[in-house]
Amino acid sequence: MKTYVLVFFFLIIGTCNYAQDASMPENQEKTEQKLKVFPNPATSVVNILGLKNTSKAEIAIYDIYGNNVFIRKWEIRRNAINIPISSLEPGAYIITIHSDEQQVRTKFYKK
């Protein structure tokens, strides 16, 4: 009886993993960008390295409740960006960067 339960359990787990993998379209690649966000926690500026250069990127910062606290169009040069955050209250934030070249989401903490 234990053998049947174990076999059933592994079949369920295998099916769930297959269903998750099958939900991604075949032509969509799984790429993970290596970003470096520093200093973290930050006080006046947060730096993000590892971005793709673009002339028009939309930078948005959200607080932990999902409220948009900062939005701006920015040029990314030298694969990096420096965002002034001195006007933000201390806490956790999420940065999203959207452009034709990339869509990035990362987090940082403000002291």
TrEMBL record:
<dbReference type="Pfam" id="PF18962">
    <property type="entry name" value="Por_Secre_tail"/>
</dbReference>
<feature type="signal peptide">
    <location>
        <begin position="1"/>
        <end position="21"/>
    </location>
</feature>
<keyword id="KW-0732">Signal</keyword>
<protein>
    <submittedName>
        <fullName>T9SS C-terminal target domain-containing protein</fullName>
    </submittedName>
</protein>
<feature type="domain" description="Secretion system C-terminal sorting">
    <location>
        <begin position="37"/>
        <end position="108"/>
    </location>
</feature>
<dbReference type="InterPro" id="IPR026444">
    <property type="entry name" value="Secre_tail"/>
</dbReference>
